Amino acid sequence: xxxxxxxxxxxxxxxxxxxxxxxxxxxxxxxxxxxxxxxxxxxxxxxxxxxxxxxxxxxxxxxxxxxxxxxxxxxxxxxxxxxxxxxxxxxxxxxxxxxxxxxxxxxxxxxxxxxxxxxxxxxxxxxxxxxxxxxxxxxxxxxxxxxxxxxxxxxxxxxxxxxxxxxxxxxxxxxxxxxxxxxxxxxxxxxxxxxxxxxxxxxx
Length: 204
Hints:
mainly alpha, elongated, single chain
């Protein structure tokens, strides 16, 4: 095969790969933008705010703010919950802590079972029914926030994958351009170097 023909074919393949990478990068960036805006808008509708900074000055076990919340939750003190990262912190380091301090560690299934088995009309049954409602609400909100965090993570992955696609597309475009430049400079009659075992044996 002539070297010029090979360079043209390789350059054509490189150009095709470049287009594919650019399209993939654009779609990934669109996915990141869509996911980020959706998560932001859905969280904004909930109007959830982190406790103010002053609340963390009196952290105490069994209260709204516990010492375990200071390293993570306090960094967002007073802010509105709008990002996936904030959603994870609020779900795991705020809601989960309060659920764990409830009877049966706030596990809805356990509280619900205990409420059904309690004597109807008793004080224990009434207390468990109230706890069941609180556990359900807290568990549901925590699950929704963690779902928002998961989608936010997918968006972040799409962002970096898109950046990688554009970088690879740029490198491939450079190689394609070099291939076209080389195809124009190489003599039309030049052949690719072909290895002939017979010639090597004869030489030896």
